[in-house]
Amino acid sequence: MLLFGRKRLLPALSGCVVLLLVNPIHGASDNSADPNQRDNAMQPLELTPRLSLQLKLHAFLLWSSVGFLMPIGVLLIRVSSNVRSPKTAKALFYCHVASQMAGVILATAGAALSVKNFENAFDNAHQRVGLLLYGLLWLQPLIGFLRPDSRGLKVRSVWYFGHWFLGITLCVVGVANVYTGLHAYKERTGRSVKLCTALLTVEVSGMALVYLVQDRWDHVVRQRRRRQEEEEEAGGDERSSSEGAAYPANDHKEVAVVVP
Q: What is the pLDDT of residue 95?
């Protein structure tokens, strides 16, 4: 029963993403909506010092969660799978758990700040995707804690794929939502976000490069190590053959002559 539920989890989540992106919430795209409300939503936002601080804090909390800690956790668990030392692998695993839980806590703080201080009409993609993101952020650690103990079973394989796919989806959707948040900030305030966008792009590109190159680099290291071992074996065979040629074995039997 649990296996079928996990298999149906990802299609259900994908359907929720599509519904949230296509269908607006609270009738925001209804033709009968008040035109004055739509005009007010498009008016520039008057930034007070307090509101400016709250927006910056919200952006920092969400970036540090889905834009930094969650991807770092993915990289840590990926590195641990290629580590030979059990102690190092265990330390990386606990660092992965700590980074993910810290990301969930920071995202929850950002969500509470948004609900308390901002207008949440959910009439744009940033707010709708953010709402879905908060739910998935709490679902991901729950799936992690429900990891089956037995290795090699089909349930463990299904769990691994679901946990991995949801983690990658969270990182991709979270980073995309940070971009849309920066765009919404620019549209509402008229302030430039080029520097923040450039820094985010550099960071995400670097993490993506490390993620993609890591497995290939491990493969290169294994091939180099195997080549060195083969060269050492070939060198040992050559030395043994040369020693055999320098000191040939005396296979002739010695004949003892006995004088009567």
A: 94
- Spatial contact of 171 and 70, defined as CB atoms under 8 Å apart: yes
- DSSP-based three-state secondary structure for 171: helix
- For the ranges 30-44, 51-65, 173-187, 244-258, the lowest mean pLDDT is seen at 30-44
Q: CA 220 to CA 143: how far, in whole Å?
A: 33
The mean per-residue pLDDT over the stretch 132-156 comes to 84
Q: Six-digit token pair at 55? A: 């927006």
Q: Give the single-character DSSP code of 24.
A: P
How many domains is the chain partitioned into structurally?
A: 1
Least Cα distance to 164 among 48, 88, 240, 81 occurs for 81
- pTM for the model stands at 0.66
The C-alpha atoms of residue 65 and residue 155 are separated, in whole angstroms, by 29
**Which range marks the domain in which residue 95 is found?**
9-25+49-226
CA dist., res. 100 & res. 82, Å (int):
20
| Token pair listed for 100 | 């993910």
- Which structure tokens are listed for 33? 């909506």
> Would you say residue 255 lies in a domain?
no
* Mean pLDDT for all residues in the chain: 76
Give residues with Cβ within 8 angstroms of 178, minimum separation 6.
Answer: 59, 62, 63, 66, 67, 200
State the sign of the Cα–Cα–Cα–Cα dihedral 199, 68, 218, 160.
Answer: negative
Distance (Å, whole) CA 65 – CA 101: 9
Of 18, 162, 164, 147, the residue nearest 78 (C-alpha): 164
CATH code at position 132: 1.20.120.1770
Looking at residue 244, what is its pLDDT? 56
